[in-house]
Structure formats: structure tokens, C-alpha cells
């Protein structure tokens, strides 16, 4: 027989021969309640006991010779092999223990605690012996506190090293064998037990070791009398001796029916101390849980027996239902239901459902002791023992009256909201029965709410079954829980319907409306589009494109397509991003968006080597709703070329004007020197020779002096005109009131001489050159005084704002002028009156026009002969009027 290396070579059965020892081992193996098997060195079964066969469901012939992988997973086998190799390398004596699952013949799995012992002969590994214990639910729960460390050795070491006390009795009730574990459990030597009568051993030796000796002795000896099997008898060793530890033992006893000890018994003592401690902890936990349950006041938590009678009652149940523990225990739980629910057997059905499904949840009205009703959420859970025995139910009740009332209020509010929905709305349940219909829906469906509620959609409108769009929309929505929609003409109700379906777990909400008018508009639009197309196809020098809100082209035409590399067919039905290059699409998209938002917008761009201006405008229906946009693209290549040529011409003209200004400045400047000389000599002649001139000579001299003065004034005016652009000051905020006041002071003598009346309004602040603007006011007011006619001058100065510009007006009631002369007066040296009538150089108004143009404004005159004159000019407002 194989042994572990280093094991005691003395036979386990002392001096018996091998055949007797083998027979005894066989008896012991068949007697032990654990599964035992032996594998060869390659992992193939060479022996299995009956427990292995019963547990796995295999026959002995089906296992012997098969590899252990038939029962265990590859991962578990690799783990076992690594552990065995490690123990062989270290020559460890302790037994390897594993927790794993074995596959049964019918495909199920059985959890095992496996103890392995290697078999060594002549220092060579010969295989393993495994002891497998089926881990029941009770043992697994026990293992969560602390695993029971039961040792299962090979056939050899089971007897000596397994944590099981073993005793074999002969047919005459003599102790034939006892293991070392039994010695340790009871503080005895095996010699004190062997070959003694078991009755005597129990009465004289063993029973005194137990906390309840009489119960122990009565239980064991009665099994001898009746020769019966004891499966599980728990007893406690008191541990009141120095050599005996206190422990709990589980006693098993089985008659031996064959072999050498036929008629005898085998007795097993299992140490279940850890299990009892775990059970004690479990009991404490149970008591703590029951205390916690009793302390919960928000929930009614109580137990029912299998028939539904109350067998426990917590404080929350007392508070919620109003019954004291003493008056409700033993009463049937249907007491808490309304009479209507009891009449419909709701309590009975709830228990049946809980038994069938494990639990049931219910909400409804319940009744308190005082007869008051409350809305309850109730959960009833079936309770079963580990062995599946039905023990009753756990019932948890919560008062949800406040929530239920709020839900009812919300439901009422929802009904009010739904009734105010302008679209037609109705709802159906999962069987397509109407559950809600608002007024608009009843109107369109041509049935009242009372006629529809509770009726099935397909019964009220049977022809809908044949409309695939409707049938598919409803069934797809309910099956996929995704929204669906449809639009079609429904003959029965004689209108186009647009419907949107929104599913939920309880049914479908349907929002629909009559879109007949919209469809008619669309049909009219199609006709209109045909007209558009005809017009667009003859659109000269460009292209016309109609697009919708998805920026998809619905029409493209025009003679300009001959100039670009795309045809109308390349655009119609396509989204604009799919047609144009990215640069072109980016340029035109803002204009398209603006048109769909009701704005007109234009954009210039280059495409296909040509220049275009694109105008985008919205298209509206009769109600003013925007339903599309249209773009008109004109080829402006030639126009842009002409503009560029014009710009070059203007640039040349401006350069020419600049040179002319420079020439005028230089010329006028250079003319002043000889003019001064002429004037000086004329003055000298007048002083020295005035007495020598006759009357005609004096007249001639006067003409010469006057001509020189007029020439000087004209040259100074021309210089002032040329310096407007070159010597002007930078623009800054200017207070026109201050400028006007200064000008009036300078003109005070002329005002007094003419007895003029000048009125002014409050003038604004503008952006400009103060000295030049002063010159404008000086010239216009001087002219108003000069050309007042025979009556005293009446002059009025006012202003008017338009956007970012101010319009300043100087109005008089003087002689006026012919409209045909109004453009001519702004030309240089242009005069409407002779010098005999009015003095002046004829350059003042030209200077005014030049100043105003430098300020970015315009100047004009309104006048009729004899009706006065109004000079008006515009100036930009100051950026910050408060400055």
C-alpha cells in the first residue's frame, strides 16, 4: 500500500496481514460519508468510492480509466498540480485543501472541499488520493464566518490525521479500533478503549466528558439497542479537564453489514465547534436584525404563516395600522384589505403569486384599525428554509397616501394640460384601446370622447388595418419603443393627416393634425415651381436656384449655366455642400441662412474663373411663412473689369487734381509777388502824383487800384481753396454752437448795419476741422446778409439728425435765385450778380463745397427767386457726443 514519504511504517491495523488490512480499509472507505478517489501519476482514476458515484451520477466503469478532467475544470487541475509539485519539492507534510466544483453526469456542478494527499513509493510520485466533501448551503454560509478546516487524508492518513474521531465496534460491541483524533477529543489513550465493551466505555469513561452526559449516553446506547443509523447527533464536550478542550462534536453511527466487522458499527465524531460558533453569531445577528426591524417606524414589517396569519408585528406596523401586537397576532392579513378587495380574493391571489414567483408587489387602498383608508405600497416575499420547506411570508407595507394624492393631482393637471394642447392628441394602451382623447382629436376623428374611450383603434377605424403606413407605425413604435410617424390622405375622414407616435411601456401617445392646407400649398408650390422653372430657364447672364430649409436645391436653371462646369441636373435634389467646392460653399452659406430667416443678402465671389454677385431672398406663402429661398447669381465679370478700369481712371483723375491743386497753389503763391509790386507802385503813384492827375486820371488810377485789390482777393481765395485738403487739421469732436457764436461775433458790425435778425437752434457736436467749419458758417451767413434784398435780413439756422449724420441748414428770406443757376454757384469764381450789385470773389461757395466734401458730406441749395434761399450740408456726428 502506498504511503507518503516519511510516514510511520507501522501498519495501521497493527499486526494483521495485508488481506485483512485491505478488507478493513475497504469497509472504512465505504462507511465514510465523504467521497474518496485515487488517481495515478498521470491523473487517471484507479479507484472511487460509492459517495463519488452517487454525487457525480457516473457509474464506476464510466470513471475508472478516465482522466480527472472529466470532473474538474482545466484551471482547477493546473492549480492542484502546481500545489502538488510545490509540496513534493519542499517535502511538506501538511495536506493540500481546495475549494472547487465538480461536473456531474447530467451537466450540473457540485461544490466540493477537496483534500489531497500525494502517494510516494521509493521516493517516486505514484499519484494522489483525494477526499471530497459536498459543501451544502449550510456549510457555505458557515464558511462566511470561518472555514471549517477538516482534514481529509489518503486511506492511510485519514485514520490518523483527519479531524474526525473514528471508532470501530465489533459485533460483540467491543472497541476494535480508535484513531488518534478520538484520543485528542476525549483526553484518552487508545489502550484505554481497545477491546473494551462500548457500553462500559460510554458509561464509565466517555459520558463524563460531555456537558449533558445522560442525554449523550441515552442517545448512543439506544442506537446500540435498536441497531439504527444516527445521522447527526450534536453534543458538547465540557472541557473540564486539563487534557480535554471544550468543543462541539457531531456524532454519526452506522451498522456494518459485511466484512470482518459485520454486525458491528462504525462511529464518527466530527468537530463542529466552528459551525456552532457561526450559528451562535448567526443567532445574534438574527436577534439584532429583529431588533432593527422592530425599531423601523416608517414601514410595517411583519411575518405571516403559510396560511396568511400574522405571527410577528413591528413598531412601524403598529403605528401604520393601529393594532397592538397582542390584538393582531394570529389574525388573518386580509383584515387590512378593503371589503371590495376581499370580495375579489385579492389577498389570496397575492399569496399565490408570492408562492409562485417568490414575491409580489402591490399598491392599493388598505384599512386601519379605526376604519380609515390609506394608500399602501405592499411587498410580500415567500420564506423558505434551506431545504426548501415553505415557512410563510414576509410582508412590508409603506404608507404612500401623500405620494398617491400628489400623483392624482398631477394626473388631473396632466388632463388639464392635455385638454389645452392645440394639436389633436389621443393615447392608446398596449392593446390599442383609447385611454385619452382631447377635444381637437374628437373633432378631427369625428367621434366624441365617450364613443372612443375603451374602444380599440382598429375597431373604430377598421380600414386602418389595410393602411401599411399606419399599421407599421403603431406596431413598430410599441415593439421598439422608438418614436414613429406617418403622413397620408385618409379617405374616411377626408383630410391629410400628419401623425407623430411616442411609445411608452403603457401604450402610445399620438399627436396629429390636419395638414390638408399645407399639402394644398405644397401642390400649389409645385405648380408655382414649374412657373419659376420656366422663368428661370430664360434668366439672362446668370443662374437661378430654389432651395428648401434643408439647403437642398429644388430648382436650378438659367443661361449662366453655359459658363460654369455644373449643369442644373447636378444641383437639383442635392444639398449645397455636396455641389460646390468648400470655399464657394462657405462664401454663400451665410446668404442662404439669411434668406431662410427672412432677410435679403448678397455676396460677391469668384467661381469657375468668373466673378459673380449672388442675391439670396426668402420666399413666403400667403400667410407670410417662409417655406423656401431663392438665389439669383449674375455674372459680373465684365462689369467688375469696367469698375476696375473706372477705378484706375478715377485714380488718375485724383492724381491729376492733386497736381492741379499743387499748380494752383504754386501759381497763386507766385502771382502774389508781382501783384504786391503792382499794388505798391500804384499806392506810391497815388501818394506822390495824385495832385497832378486830372479827374480822368484819378478815375484810371482808382480802376487800377481796385483791380489790384480784386486780384489780390481772388488769389487769396484760390490759395484758401487749394489748402483745404493739404493744410486741414485732423478731425475731432467740434461743438457747432461755439463755432456759430464766434462767427456771429465777427459779423456783428454787418448785422447791426443791416438790422438783421438771426435765430438759431441748439446745434450738435460733430467730427470735423473746427477752423474749416468756421469758414463754412462765415461764408453762408455773409451771403445770407448780403443777398437779403431791401428788407432787413431774416436768417434761421437749424439742424436735423438722420442716423450717424447731422444736416445743418442756413435759411434766409432774401432775393433767392433761379433753380437753373443752383449748380453753377458752387463753381470757382462763379457769380450770379455783377460787382456793381454785390461785392465778392465768387469763390466762397466753392470753398464751402470743398470743405464739406472733405468731411464726407454733401452741400446743396433750395431756392426760388424772391422766396429766399436755404443752404444745407451734412456732417458726421461725433463718436462720443458727450465729449
From TrEMBL:
Residues 636-663 form a coiled coil. It is an enzyme of class 2 (transferase). Residues 21-91, 151-197, 285-358, 410-481 form the PAS domain. Residues 666-879 form the Histidine kinase domain. This is histidine kinase. Keywords: Coiled coil, Kinase, Phosphoprotein, Transferase. Its EC number is 2.7.13.3. It comes from the Archaea. SMART domains: HATPase_c (SM00387), HisKA (SM00388), PAC (SM00086), PAS (SM00091). It catalyses: ATP + protein L-histidine = ADP + protein N-phospho-L-histidine. Gene3D superfamilies: 1.10.287.130, Histidine kinase-like ATPase, C-terminal domain, PAS domain.
